[in-house]
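Notebook B, p. 112. Complex prediction, attempt 2.
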Amino acid sequence: MKTFSIPLPPSTKIAVVGLGYVGLPLAFALSKKFDVLGFDISLKRISELNAGVDATKEFSKKEVADTKIHFTSSDHDLKTADIYIIAVPTPVNQELIPDLGMLISASKTVGKCLAKGDIVIYESTVYPGATEEECLPVLEKTSGFKMNKDFFLGYSPERINPSDKIHKIDNITKVVSGSDEYSLEIIDELYSSIINAGTYKVNSIKVAEAAKVIENTQRDLNIALINEFSKIFALLDLDTEEVLKAAETKWNFIPFRPGLVGGHCIGVDPYYLTYKAQQVGYDPQVILSGRVVNDHMPNFIADRLLNTLNHLMFDVPNSLILILGYTFKENCNDVRNTKVHDLAVTLSNSVNIVNIFDPLMNNEQVNSLSDINFIDYPEINKYDAIIIAVGHQAFLELGINKIREFCKPNGLIYDLKYLFPPESVDLRL
Amino acid sequence: MKTFSIPLPPSTKIAVVGLGYVGLPLAFALSKKFDVLGFDISLKRISELNAGVDATKEFSKKEVADTKIHFTSSDHDLKTADIYIIAVPTPVNQELIPDLGMLISASKTVGKCLAKGDIVIYESTVYPGATEEECLPVLEKTSGFKMNKDFFLGYSPERINPSDKIHKIDNITKVVSGSDEYSLEIIDELYSSIINAGTYKVNSIKVAEAAKVIENTQRDLNIALINEFSKIFALLDLDTEEVLKAAETKWNFIPFRPGLVGGHCIGVDPYYLTYKAQQVGYDPQVILSGRVVNDHMPNFIADRLLNTLNHLMFDVPNSLILILGYTFKENCNDVRNTKVHDLAVTLSNSVNIVNIFDPLMNNEQVNSLSDINFIDYPEINKYDAIIIAVGHQAFLELGINKIREFCKPNGLIYDLKYLFPPESVDLRL
């Protein structure tokens, strides 16, 4: 049986399973110290990476071309690894219930490849208990091995912040856990060797899972509170940012901004925790109230714009609306679970045309979303209203004067992101 | 008509109306630069202060004896002031509706004293709009004056943090607002001259009111979220502090702790905002869900202790419980709206005796609360369970070994405040 010793030799073979926003940066970081196998079931993703292309745009063509990572979709290759790190998406389904499908599937794949002494580490966000209750049985069944006898288990939550140029994988402290003291030491050594910020050891896999899921839940709820403030302040004719800036002059006020909460993390992770809470008999009213408010923001924004247009005697059913930005986050081309979609759909029920301009999306992405009217560049003097929905640097560089040119002379600009001075726009969140 | 010029001369006479946790420190700070009248309707408070005694314990006997503030309950004295600052409590009633009684009453008193050119500034926490909608009409009616013609209005929210030795009145930025440009300049000058941290001018009284009320609302909700985590983690057999410490290794996790939310601010201010929100037709579900969870914590704590005692075969109906700490906050003798009261009452319905030991409370306070069993000092070897409810420094100094001596040999210690190491106690929040 294979045993690891500290320090881990550079020949240690590590497989990263799932090469998305989480797995790819991790594989790159690990490849500086170890022999890394980058595994993904997407043949397209693997062939792109082998051609030097990272569709998530986290790495340049040169970086991808120069890497020593062996990108593969082959189970046969996967078998050669000593340590497996699973970093696959953990979304929710239409009913907002955790969808562990990809996690279970990856566990089956890895289980079939296990050799005695191997270590399997999960990085995917789950509810507390999921790794041991849902993934471990799959690993044991498909491998025929027993945990802590034939192989070892670990959990180290990913804290990747896509498009963040300051907080990168090597300067974010990494929480690590293992199924026993031995595996905890090896897992800790593994991550310590690539993360300058260091690791934080916890005593159980469940604690590590819980620590991760509450991070995004806290963020989601704090944005929901600010969204609730924004809804109240709209009725009281108060400018939200003006109030927030004043409140932030207190030493312990926490600076959040209102907005659409989309993406694959902040709007999703809370449902993992609430699912488990409900399973054990607790009704998580605070967390769920925040989810309701955040999920309702596209409607609130659409209603406010339409009411304002009506109030100003615009011919709403014949009006043309432009939305600037479609991705779920600024300066990032990720469109998963973007709430701009909901906003566009809601508006399109009431107006004539909704166009979307997002210079960060490529044609392929745009073409795959056939129910949305993407445009290459807005026409001058065309729109009754423009919603600045995503705070792309590109829009800031375009400037408010240029953006106003896309409006008809009396058109409105609704700045959801406080991208421009209050006096230069007509509505703000 | 009186006019103020900048800089304000030391002869400027300022009346602080309401000498509680907010008014007294403010009066002290102002008295270093101006001629200050300290007004309170409580004859007891005034006679104590005149005798050098501050019952809120923010100032020493020497400080009170040495001050130049003229403490008074006389309306006649009040008439001599040029600037009035109203800092009276704004609680909620039994139905959790804002009780503006003291604010209106103080407004009447001040209104009767106004001379032309005077400025009236409110510091009490209210909902956005209250100063202009509720207080201003009272001032105008009782004085017969018109705002911005005969007198001026301002609002500058108090940010006093009682018992906090770091954040004091002179190093906390002060938000200021006024009814017109002139009054804003004078009010800004007034506070700038006593606050080293400086002021922050906002464009309307309503913005200043809103900024204040959201500060404590945000704090309340964040504690509620952690309380919700704590309730979920109790069911999942996870130690909350262990999870929080791991989560806090992420750069943007916000460090809050679970606990009882009492006092006159954090548990009260949110109801001011929700009252106004409901008045204008918005149902503030996020804020209210937090209030429900926080108000339910005494029940949750009592249930958890009783269930544990039952589970361990204690004779619960005959058991003796000791609660350490009664005030709403550590190292402070303020008992207003303390949730330890609710905890004691709830427990007393199920057990034989609930004793409370709080070394920070004096006999007078204790005697006024006749339905609670206060003790001077706990007996050795007496209690089936001890709840550490308030994190007084005095308990830390007492030490866990001494505290355990108050327990019967198999007794439990429930540490709500993480005052002692996890392994030294039996239950934690």
